[in-house]
Each structure stands twice: as C-alpha cells, then as structure tokens.
Design goal:
single chain; alpha+beta; SH3 type barrels; 5 helices; about 25% helix
Length: about 220
C-alpha cells in the first residue's frame, strides 16, 4: 500500500469518513500507510500514535500520498455498467465535436467511479472547477504534483444535467488550447487517451487507466 506524509499541523484520526474524532494526534511530517482510498476524499490510514499502530480515517487534504508508479486503481462498474444517459450524451457530443465517445466515457468512469463520486447537486463527474459567476458546490478533488497526490477543497461547477456536463467537457477536449497537442493523436482513442494524460496536473498513470477501461468495457463500440 502507498505511504503518505501528514502535510499540516497535527491531526486526529476519525472512526469513519467525517466521523467521530479518535484519541491521540498524528504529528506533521509523520508517515502513515494508506489502507483504503475510495476517491471520496477520506483515506483509511494506519499511523503510529502514542507508541501504538492505529487505524482511522483522515481528510485527504491533510496528506501527501506517494504515487504507486505502476498502477492506478480502476473503479468497479455498478450493475448494468455504463448508464444509458451517459452513453447517449457522449455519443451526441462525439458526433458534433469529433472526440471519441469511448475516451469521454472512460474519463467519466475513472474520474467519478461510474458516477458514484460525482459531487452532490453538481451533475459534474469530471470535477470541472467553476469560475466567478458560475453556480458551484464545494467538493474535494484529487490533485497531482511532483510525484505525489492529495485532495484539495475546490468550487466545482454545477450543471443542469449530466448531458450538459459531458458536452462541456468534450467541447474543452475539442477546442481548448491545453489539449491542442493531444488532438494531434486523433482519431485514435488510445493514443488520444495517452495524450490527454500528459496535460498539466494529470496523474501520469491516467492514460494507461483510460486505455484499460476502454478495453475492458469495449467502449470503442460507442465511437
């Protein structure tokens, strides 16, 4: 399991996500072992407290986690797999924007654990941040830098529907300057998945995880 370093003043563990505080403190710069990460922003860790090894949950904003250099965990699909409205929205946007639906669907699955981790009331499975004047909710989103990752509290944009969010996301892939180099890989969905993983702030394992999801669920059938 990966290790993590406490990156704030001493913290208390909890008995569950946002649960009851447990006795004792974990000091700043202490190294803990990450036992479970469901993507919600709360991590189950093992830490040394008062000479004892204890388990508890910590807010992911308070730790820097070492990247596993080999794999990125692929979320398990719910019964029924990909939701019909998500597939339909990706295919409709793909027809207009010429971005492979398979890549957008793989991003939806990976970024939101098949929708389960979409911030409540946001219809925003991609963690798209809001700008001034846009409706938003506050949520924890994962951030990667210098070979480590953490969670940060961010204002994520609210969309009226999942279809609107997918259309907005795919328009960004099709037109935003940040993805100009990645678009040279089109129309190949696997090469495009690798290329968008190189955009600043992405987990370096992101492209391989997208390709794995595309393969496992045969998502090119929707292109």
């Amino acid at each position: 399991m990966p290790t993590a370093t406490i990156n704030t003043w001493s913290v208390k563990l909890r008995d569950g996500p946002d649960g009851k505080l447990l006795p004792g403190f974990v000091p700043m710069r202490a190294v803990v072992e990450v036992k479970a990460d469901d993507g919600s922003g709360w991590l189950l860790v093992a830490a040394d407290i008062d000479g004892e090894r204890r388990l508890g949950f910590v807010d992911g904003c308070y730790v820097l986690v070492d990247l596993d250099p080999l794999t990125l965990t692929i979320p398990a699909a719910p019964p029924g797999g990909f939701a019909y409205d998500v597939v339909l929205a990706a295919q409709e946007a793909s027809r207009k924007l010429h971005i492979p639906a398979s890549v957008a669907l793989a991003q939806w699955a990976l970024d939101s654990a098949f929708g389960r981790l979409t911030p409540p009331a946001s219809n925003n499975p991609f963690g798209i941040e809001a700008v001034d004047g846009q409706p938003s909710v506050v949520a924890r989103i994962r951030q990667v830098a210098d070979g480590k990752w953490t969670f940060v509290q961010a204002r994520v944009r609210q969309f009226a529907s999942i279809a609107e969010a997918i259309d907005h996301h795919m328009r960004s892939l099709a037109a935003a300057a940040a993805y100009a180099q990645a678009r040279l890989a089109l129309p190949d969905p696997n090469r495009f998945a690798d290329a968008i993983a190189e955009v600043s702030g992405r987990d370096p394992r992101y492209g391989a995880a997208l390709r794995q999801i595309i393969r496992i669920y045969n998502l090119t059938q929707f292109d």
